TrEMBL record:
Superkingdom of this protein's organism: Bacteria
Biological process according to GO: negative regulation of DNA-templated transcription
Similarity annotation: Belongs to the CsoR family.
Name recorded for this polypeptide: Metal-sensitive transcriptional regulator
Keyword entries, A-Z: Copper
A molecular function GO annotation: DNA binding
Amino acid sequence: MTSASARRAYALHTQPPGYADHKADHLARLHKIEGQVRGISRMVTDDRYCIDVLTQITAAIRALQEVALGLLDDHVRGCVTHAARTDPAQAEEKYTELSDTLRRALRV
């Protein structure tokens, strides 16, 4: 990492993350999902019906997607908007980062 990129990375991390205002909500959802996944593991251990297990896996995936969408919304409203208002170069980086992230997410 060059010294300029190191300074930029440090500056980016000195501000609270875009999800700071919703951190407790995101963590609560993630803890519920964690319990849901443990429940799925118990279902497999208990030899539950395949379709029932798959239904629960689908629900867990959907719950994770909702957390991801919440984090994405927070990122756009916080980090990207802040960059767009304060630093055109940083804004371009954020737009590229956002585009790359969406491209990876939509490959599902």
